[in-house]
């Protein structure tokens, strides 16, 4: 079982303040509950690029296509399924030199293609990056660490937020010698998961990031606002 830390975050409380789109004309209390789950990533997606500049468009296209095809073939041999790999179309642009007070001179062509890979086993991420390096990929555009069962963690965070809102309401009414009535309104504000993103890097730099993959953590948050009636 994956380790995770579950906790509620302290939040500001509003007593008797209108938080809905309409006026609330009875005594009430509003609390905001927050919940977080810290999850260890077990999968990843990464995007790499191959870029070539040559004198002719045909040469540039040929070199880029050759590298991409070799990389995709190597991934397949390493056990990556076809539906975990996607590649972009070729992007080809002319390159010009701009002499002062003269017409631009065509000096060659720049071709590039991207390949996106889903890694279902995080322990193999470094292996696939090494494959990319060997096959001639020259840039990692991004690496995003994820959890495969994110919905389960999100539910854990949601339940923590609900518990947090309840505890705050009960504490407040006790402190003010009031009675907590029925729930009048619940407003759900789902907080997005914060994935672990690695910056754009050259392939040699990507190899230096190895130790950080397994030590990373993903924060999954949730939030709920609850408006209670206050009994006399």
Automatic annotation (TrEMBL):
Pfam families: SIMPL. Keywords: Signal. Residues 1-23 form the signal peptide. It comes from the Bacteria. NCBIfam families: PRK11087.1. PANTHER family: PERIPLASMIC IMMUNOGENIC PROTEIN, SLR1258 PROTEIN. This is Oxidative stress defense protein. It comes from Vibrio olivae.
